[in-house]
Amino acid sequence: MEAFLISTGIVALAEMGDKTQLLSLVLAARFRKPWPIVWGIFVATVFNHALAGGLGTWVTLWLGPEVLRWVLAVSFFAMAAWMLVPDKLDDEDTSVKPKWGVFGTTVVTFFLAEMGDKTQIATVMLAAEYKQWAWVVMGTTLGMMVANAPVVWFGERITRLVPLHWVHRISALVFVVLGALIVWGQEAPPTQPHEAQKEAVQSTEGSTVSALPESASSLTEPKSSEPAQIKP
Fold first, then answer.
1. pLDDT (tens digit, 9 = 90+) per residue, 150-206?
2. Domain-wise residue ranges, the chain
3. For the whole model, what pTM was predicted?
4. Least confident stretch, 40-49, 131-140, 173-182
C-alpha cells in the first residue's frame, strides 16, 4: 500500500504542467469530447506504465543491492533537478489528427508522448525501489488520471488555479527526500567479518580433530574374547 500511495502522489505532482498534461489540454480543446479522451489517456497510461514498471522490476534482477541503491539515489536526485525544468509541447505533439477516431488518436498520441517522459522514468524508478510492480503501476496510473482528467473536463482553468512553479518545487523536494532516504535509510546486506569466519572454521576443525582420537581408539582397542573350549 505504501508503494501505491507514494506512486500516486509523486506522479500526480510530476504530471502538473508536464508535456502530457499539456497534450491533454490540446486534445480537449481540439475534439471537445471528454469521455473518449479520458478513456484514451487511461488505456495509454496503463500500457505505458506497465512496460515501465516491468523494466524497473527487471533492473533489480541484474543489479546487486549496493549498485542498485546508488543508481536509484542518483536517479531520484536527477529527477529532482529535471522537475524544475518546465515542459513544452513539440510541433509533432500538437499536430493531432483524428486518424483512428478520438479514442484511438488519444491512445496513440498519449502513449508516444509519454515515452521517455518524467512520469514514465519515475515509474521505472519506483518499481525498482519498491519491487511491487502491480501497486506501483496502479498508483502511477491513478496519479496520471488525477492530474489529467480535470484538465480534460475543465480545460485551462485548472492549470490557472494551481501555481505550477510551486508544484514543481514540491515535486523536486519529494524526489530529493526519496533519494536521501535511499542513501541514508538503507544499508547494504550484512556480511560476516573475516575474523568471525576464521574462528568459525577453526572451531569446526577443532571439533573434527577432537572426535578423531575417540574413533581411532575404538578402532585400535583389542576386543576381549575368550578362546573357545573344546569338550572332550
1. 989 887 666 666 666 777 788 788 888 888 888 887 543 343 444 444 454 455 555
2. 2-185
3. 0.70
4. 173-182
What Å distances lie between residue 216 and 204, 206, 208, 210, 220, CA to CA? Answer: 19, 16, 12, 11, 6
Direct distance between the N- and C-terminal alpha carbons of the chain, in angstroms, rounded to an integer: 95
What is the SS3 string spanning the chain?
CHHHHHHHHHHHHHHCCCHHHHHHHHHHHHHCCHHHHHHHHHHHHHHHHHHHHHHHHHHHHHCCHHHHHHHHHHHHHHHHHHHCCCCCCCHHHHCCCCECHHHHHHHHHHHHHHCCCHHHHHHHHHHHHHCCHHHHHHHHHHHHHHHHHHHHHHCHHHHHHCCHHHHHHHHHHHHHHHHHHHHHHCCCCCCCCHHHHHHHHHHHHHHHHHHHHHHHHHHHCCCCCCCCCCCC
| Residue 116 grid cell | 521517455
* Rg, C-alpha atoms of the chain: 32
Distance (Å, whole) CA 114 – CA 224: 90
